[in-house]
Amino acid sequence: MPSRTFADRTRGLVRDEALERAAELLVAGGWRGLRLQDVADGIGVSRQTLYNEFASKQGLAAALVLRRTEEFLAGLEAALDGEDDLYRAWVEAVRTTLDTVARDPLLRVLLTGQGAQDLLPLLTSEAEPLITAARDRAAAFLVRRRPDLDPATASAAAEIAARLTISHVVLPLHPPDVVADQIATTVVRFLM
């Protein structure tokens, strides 16, 4: 496999720095206070460089949500792998997700901060990348845990869990422990 070029490494560094700076600005000033020019100034590149990388402010936000998703999916995977019992594994995974959202200032701003209604589509009508990432990681866990399980069934169960968890994050109606129990019960019953 060929190594990455200098240009690719540089682009990746600019992207990482832009996402870090955008997260800081988003937490400090909310969605309406986030400007691509401020992100560009903060990392020493032109605004056009950011437009070339993300296409728009919404594209930057989508990349930020996906990045945060990948970070927390690693924790989700650890929670799933940390339990032998399938039900308890799912309870722990859902609790981990809900706890992460509750503790993470960036996710709180994305979901509840001023101007968050502009970002809500990233978790609702435009949530496909988020759901797909969560589904694929959780389905891989299920297939590892139960090799006899049909991959399509594992994928369906994982997608159900992802959609239900995101739904609770967006509109919590019950305490996290109740939600974790409900989702784990749904997944386990679906798999039976």
TrEMBL record:
Keywords: DNA-binding, Transcription, Transcription regulation. It comes from the Bacteria. One of its GO terms (molecular function) is DNA-binding transcription factor activity. Signal peptide: none annotated. Residues 12-72 form the HTH tetR-type domain. Residues 35-54 bind DNA. InterPro entries: AlkX_C, Homeodomain-like_sf, HTH-type_TetR-like_transc_reg, HTH_TetR. This is TetR family transcriptional regulator. It comes from Actinomycetospora succinea.
